[in-house]
Amino acid sequence: MDPMQTPVDHDVVIIGSGFSGIGMAIALQRSGRSFTVLEKAHDIGGTWRDNLYPGCACDVPSHLYSFSFEPNPYWSRAYATADEIQDYLLYVVEKYDVRKDVQFDAQVTRGVYDESLRVWHLTVLGSDGVETHLVAGAVVLGVGALHEPSLPDIPGLETFAGEVMHTASWDPGASMFGRKVGIIGTGASAVQAIPLLAEDADHLTVFQRTPAWVLPKVDPEYPDALQDAYDKRPWLMKLHRAKIRTANELRAIAFTRVPALLKAASAGAAANIRRSVTDPELRRKLIPDYTMGCKRITFSNAYYPALAREDVDVETEHITGADARGLVTADGARHDLDVLVLATGFDVAGSYRHLNFTGARGHDLGEDWDAGITSYYGVTVPHFPNLFFLLGPNTALGHTSVLMMIEAQIALTLRLLDERDRRRAGAVQVREAVAQAHMAALDRRTQRTVWIAGGCDSWYLDQFGRNRVLWPGSVPEYERATRRTEMVDYEFTGSRASVSSSR
């Protein structure tokens, strides 16, 4: 078949309706391209729709955790809760009339690139079990990296007679009152959940694998008068956002260039632990032996007081197994539980492996990822033409809002699509040598960051000890780099397929 006559259902198919997917949809809407959004769940959202555990909130200031083109004067406090962020996203969806372009209960189970026609064939499974098929001129993966729960490998866990739940799949109707609760993990989700679980549970056991650096949280409520001022004087809100952005970018220097600054900050954080916890043995358990920032820094005013309660135990022995009654640790102690909460994070590689995408010359996305994914600014990957990532490899942040990265990636994606069409080409993909050189440069830069030099082992690093999650620089640097990317770095091949009038 002549590629120029190939029926394509949509110019672009977006997978996922979180911030990435919705931001991409609005940009495509403005550009006049045909598109659809495939969402596996029943409603709009991603992280902030799915994470319903007690205390769930953002650790980035509210006014920076919003689209630059749609600021929100009515944030209720400095750090918004999950519900408030989800409400903001739903507001944006309605304002820009995106919902009509979203197909819900539509899980993409297979994606195959057609090299002869230069299109993507997608298999979509509905909630009724019926498969449908779409042909797309391009695919944008807005699935994010934090939605496939990482589950601990505990022998016998399947025999536990109590209730097991991951923080990412929390049952909002679950009650902890009068129950013996255990929680595995002390990362960002656990730091938020533990104070509320401690209040409700009869007894809480925190199974700590590695202690976290937890700093005091400055989280004032915004009075109505200030919200009204931001609404009536947008320049004032813009100034506030710019101030937050500048302050956060200063942290990037410590994370990526001068980790010694974080060592000094670690001493101050350790002093905070000593002020908050009087028990010397508990203090010993809670002070990390790695530089602050090597793992994600968390913020809470209630975490350390919760751990100091008489009805809370912090267990640092390795978990060796489980049975019907609870967990057993390496010292032989048995911990009887009614509920086990897994605050064990996410499987970053699994977020893309489950998509089951096959690119040019039979390349499997999951296998390539497992081998050490090679991308170019986290947006394009060799051997996968007309496929674009939002919040792909090395584009997450440890110091500020990822929404700014998303907007830069959306702009680059549109630029590549426009250039492909201007050249009357059928496909665009990054040159493999360019992507490999880019990753080698990131590896060199990462060696001086706190994530490598800080003395910890985190989910930021892959099985080879390489950072494949975080951007080792500032957001302005990333924005400049993606704006100035040379088109010679990409291959434009073939002729463009036509869009079906029956879409």
Automatic annotation (TrEMBL):
Q: Which GO terms describe its molecular function?
A: flavin adenine dinucleotide binding; N,N-dimethylaniline monooxygenase activity; NADP binding
- What PANTHER family does the record tag this protein with? FAD_NAD(P)-BINDING DOMAIN-CONTAINING PROTEIN-RELATED, L-ORNITHINE N(5)-MONOOXYGENASE-RELATED
Extract the InterPro entries matched here. Answer: FAD-bind_Monooxygenase_sf, FAD/NAD-bd_sf, Flavin_mOase-like
Could you list this entry's UniProt keywords, alphabetically sorted: FAD, Flavoprotein, Oxidoreductase
Q: What is the lineage of its organism?
A: Bacteria, Bacillati, Actinomycetota, Actinomycetes, Micrococcales
SUPFAM superfamilies given in the database record? FAD/NAD(P)-binding domain
**Name of this protein:** Cation diffusion facilitator CzcD-associated flavoprotein CzcO
What family name appears in the similarity comment? Belongs to the FAD-binding monooxygenase family.
Keyword match Iron-sulfur: no
